[in-house]
Amino acid sequence: MIVKESCFMEIRLWRELLIPYELAVKDLVMKFKLLQKEHREKNLYSPIEQVTGRVKSINSILEKMQAKHVSWEELEEKIEDIAGVRIICQFCEDIEKVAALIRNRSDMRVLEEKDYVTQGKDSGYRSYHMIVSYCAETLAGKKEIHAEIQIRTLAMNFWATIEHSLQYKYKGNVPADLAGRLTEAANSVLKLDEEMSLVRSEVMDAQKSMLH
Ligand code: GTP
Ligand code: MG
């Protein structure tokens, strides 16, 4: 009976903790989707192609706390991706445009930026990460929380999604031959993004010269 009650208490504490994060993810996803809509309504090209978000599962938070030796008290300061938003762009040059849009907003404050686009990780992973501080307003009042925003192209996202599933399948120990092929695939993704950008700029140049 006592065990059951303490379990309920723990679930209540987790629920309470995660409410502002759930709110923040919903707010942020909605705001970025509205930015995309606003571009389209003004007949402007939108650097935002897709937006998704998630609140990290309690299991994943617990695993990360254990791996990084983070206590309950340190949790909200040290685990910065409890709230996660992913913005997918068509072209590599859109990533910087999205980052600039975020830097210029007054409803979120950029705390940290990590550029894995110009300098990919050894795994082959490429993406632009921003940690922002965002004010979530719940019944309990205002709360500043951290959220991780990942910005990447469709091609980078394709690679990261497959690589993530393989890491999951092999519990982080992907066989060397597969890991090698993933690195090669990452190089192909880089080339694909470059080629798509070239095609786009040639098309745009052609359109401009037709207008003159
Ligand atoms: P953590 O927050 O503990 O992950 O450490 P960190 O802050 O140094 O992480 P980093 O900014 O490098 O990465 C944070 C997130 O990026 C991860 O949770 C993943 O979603 C993603 N990521 C980083 N590296 C990889 C990778 O090699 N493959 C894939 N698929 N995703 C990655
Ligand atoms: Mg991190």
UniProtKB/TrEMBL annotation:
Transmembrane spans: none
Q: Quick one: which pathway?
A: Purine metabolism; ppGpp biosynthesis; ppGpp from GTP: step 1/2
- Taking every annotated instance into account, which residue ranges of this chain make up the domain RelA/SpoT? 53-174
GO terms for biological process, alphabetical:
guanosine tetraphosphate biosynthetic process
Q: What is this protein called?
A: RelA/SpoT domain protein
Lineage at the top is: Bacteria, Bacillati, Bacillota, Clostridia, Lachnospirales
Q: Shown portion of the whole protein?
A: 1 to 212 of 279
